[in-house]
Amino acid sequence: MLFLLQPLPPISSFSTSRRRVEPSFAAHDNARCRGKFHVASARSEDDYHATLKALKSRGLTPRKSLGQHYMLNSSINEQLASAADVKEGDVVLEIGPGTGSLTNILINAGATVLAIEKDPHMALHVRERFSSIDQLTVLQEDFTRCHIRSHMISLLQNAKSSGRNSKYAKVVSNIPFNISTDVVKQLLPMGDIFSEVVLLLQEETALRLVDASLRSSEYRPINIFVNFYSDPEYKFKVLRSNFFPQPNITGDRLMTGTNFTLFESLGTAVTRMKVRVDAAVVTFKLKEAAEYPPVASTKSFFSMVNSAFNGKRKMLRRSLQHICTSLEVERALESVGLPVTSRPEELTLDDFVRLHNLIVKG
């Protein structure tokens, strides 16, 4: 039995114009971001109808439990592929192909595509839609549990034996928002497999991953992780009107971090709110192992970082005293030019690396 997020609107209620609408752009103004970001906003009517027809043909509606939000604008998908510079002979991983609109663009660009889809109905739809295409493999699996490394190694080896010189693969995906962090954590340490990862994320997540500021509540261990393994870049904003259904977040998520002050005066009723949210495209240029910051053990490094942030607002000399004494932590902080009263949200990636190498014994 399918759990419905939003019923499909009647196809006849929208224009049947075949004219393609190109995206318009506007500046994205956010105090946490530097530079000028562009907004991709226009909808391709053809893609809207194609998406609804694909779902209606199987009697399906988007499932909230799977975080399904289908892209209605083919120009956004083209920009996703362009952000990764997808070209003839590339090997591309797509997570959550849905109706196959992005898949189609990747294939037309000449890429060999591995599409991983958890929903068995949508996996079947994509297989049937591209049944005559040899350069697509569809796996009906939960990405967060699949052995992606072995799948990709096999695909790259096959590409090499076919005469295509693809040393690294790429990731280009409009992923379910509810697995964003899991996807990032699984993919970014795979710089030996992927050269870059291009993801369409909830905008709040995109901003937090790319440009969380020091000394802010948005600065977390995931920021250290992202910058350890990659060079992230916010590419452009995608308005919620480009999705069906439009993504939203609930009030309990709004009442966190810097958002709390804005909503605290509304009382407990805010936790029952649903607020529409936009999305954004982020690219992660993955580092190879030789480019990682110099730590003896990544496991011990991230264990230390997580411990540092576990004690909210605690000074490092207290939160890290299970690793060594408070006095030793203070001396290490002084050695790297930091105050002995430092807290985790005040340290950069390089600061954490130098601190780790002083207090964690081989």
UniProtKB/TrEMBL annotation:
PROSITE patterns recorded: RRNA_A_DIMETH, SAM_RNA_A_N6_MT
One Pfam short name: RrnaAD
Annotated family: Belongs to the class I-like SAM-binding methyltransferase superfamily. rRNA adenine N(6)-methyltransferase family.
Key words, A-Z: Methyltransferase, RNA-binding, rRNA processing, S-adenosyl-L-methionine, Transferase
Keyword S-adenosyl-L-methionine: yes
Name by which UniProt lists this protein: rRNA adenine N(6)-methyltransferase
Binding site for S-adenosyl-L-methionine: 69, 71, 96, 117, 142, 174
Biological process annotations from GO: rRNA methylation
Residue ranges of domain Ribosomal RNA adenine methylase transferase N-terminal in the record: 76-255
Source taxon at top rank: Eukaryota
Gene3D superfamilies per the UniProt record, alphabetical: Ribosomal RNA adenine dimethylase-like, domain 2, Vaccinia Virus protein VP39
SMART domains: rADc (SM00650)
Annotated coiled-coil segments of the chain: none
Keyword rRNA-binding: no
Known EC number: 2.1.1.-
